[in-house]
Amino acid sequence: MPASTQARVRDFAPPASADDRRQRILDAALKRNAFRQDALIEVLHAAQNAFGYLTPELLWYVAANLRLPPSRVYGVATFYNFFSLKPPGEHTVILCEGTVCYMRGATRIGDALEAAFGAAPGESSPDGRISVAIARCFGSCALAPVLVIDGQVVGNTTPELAVGRVQAALGA
Ligand code: FES
Which of ligand 1's atoms lies nearest the C-alpha of 137? Predict the structure, then answer.
């Protein structure tokens, strides 16, 4: 690895200490992609996977290391709904709002989850127990509307079924 590349990961205060495993994962992603600006999405994925969500410190660190304007990094991180700038809830609910799920009532399911748990789509509940994310299509349109609760696919969902399944996941 060129000396300039070695030095670059230390150009900006890292979000965690150098021996922190999460930091090593992020730095490895930067190096693996040779600090290329077109690797921004891959590096942000690595950062989110390692740290759980994208903190302002992470965005600054990625921007400095890829030599991109922070506004560009922030713009990409907020444009794609698979990136989160907030800590995830203890349980994750992903609601599909793709065309077929939307036509079959996904919005009513999102409304029901918000009413029951206080977590609007894209947000976490105030107690941090669940977060609700939005997806654009799981490729399971025959089961629409589709919800994924802690990795478990729930098809043919109704608002009542969705709330019941999330309550079960919460142990309520
Ligand atoms: S639109 Fe929801 S699974 Fe395809």
Answer: 4
In short, whether 135's Cβ falls inside 6 Å of ligand 1 is no
| Inter-axis angle of helices 40-51 and 70-79, nearest 10 | 70
Q: Which one-letter DSSP state was computed for residue 84?
A: -
Fold of 91-170: Glutaredoxin (3.40.30)
Counting from 1 in the atom list of ligand 1, the atom nearest the Cα of 102 is 1
Question: CA nearest 165: which of 112, 154, 156, 114?
Answer: 154
137 Cβ inside 6 Å of ligand 1 = yes
* Residue-by-residue pLDDT tens, the chain, 172 positions: 444 444 455 456 678 777 788 999 999 999 999 999 999 999 999 998 888 889 999 999 999 999 999 999 999 999 987 888 887 788 989 899 999 999 999 999 999 999 999 998 878 898 989 989 888 888 899 999 999 998 889 999 999 999 999 999 988 6
| The overall pTM is greater than 0.70 | no
